[in-house]
Amino acid sequence: MNETKVYINVDLQPDFFPGGALGAPGADKIIPKVNKINEKARQEGGEIIFTYEAHPHNMGAHFEKYGRHCLEGTPKAEIDPRIKVSEDHLFVKGTEHYQDYLTSINAKDLDGRTLAEYLLSLGDNVHAIVYGLLLDYCAGDTAVDIAKRGIRTSLIRDLTPALNLKPGDDQRAIDRLVAAGVKVI
Ligand SMILES: [Zn+2]
C-alpha cells in the first residue's frame, strides 16, 4: 500500500520570523526552501497542511509567558505572505483565551476537525512530515504529539529553525523528538 504523505507546515507566521515578536534569527532563510518542498509535494499529489495561531487580545497566561503575538484580526495572525499557500488545508489554534499551549495537534480546520482527528482519518499508512516554526516550540511539540498518536512522523531539521532562548534548547528539542519516535531528517 502506498504511503500517504502529509506535509505539515507549522506556524509560518510573521511573528516567528526575524522582526517578529518571537522571531528566530535567520529563520527567513527557510522561506524559499519551504515553498519549494510544498510545490514539489503538490505536484506529486501530496497533501499540504498549514497550521497557524490567531490569538484574542485577552490571551492571559499565554501572553504573560511569551508576550503578545499573532493577534487575531491583524496580518500577524495569518501565514506570512512570503509563503505560497495554494488550495491547501488550514488548521487554526489558540483562538480562545484559555488555550495556553504550543502544539498544533488540536488546531481545527473549517469543518471543526482537529489535526489529530484528520490525520487519523487518513488510514494506517500516513507519514506526517513536519517543518516550520519553531523547533523548540510549536513545530517540535506538534511533531511529538503526532508521533504519540502512533503516526509515522518525520521532522525536517533544515526547515525548522530554533529560537534557542536558552542555549541548548535546540538539542533538548531534538532529544524529545527522538524519544517520542520522530525521525529527525
Ligand atoms: Zn501563541
TrEMBL record:
Alphabetic keyword roster: Hydrolase, Metal-binding, Pyridine nucleotide biosynthesis
Pfam families per record: Isochorismatase
Known EC number: 3.5.1.19
A GO biological process held by the record: pyridine nucleotide biosynthetic process
Gene3D superfamilies listed in its UniProt record: Isochorismatase-like (3.40.50.850)
Presence of the UniProt keyword Metal-binding in the record: yes
Single annotated GO MF: metal ion binding
Domain Isochorismatase-like: 8-185
Pathway info: Cofactor biosynthesis; nicotinate biosynthesis; nicotinate from nicotinamide: step 1/1
Family in the record: Belongs to the isochorismatase family.
Protein name: nicotinamidase
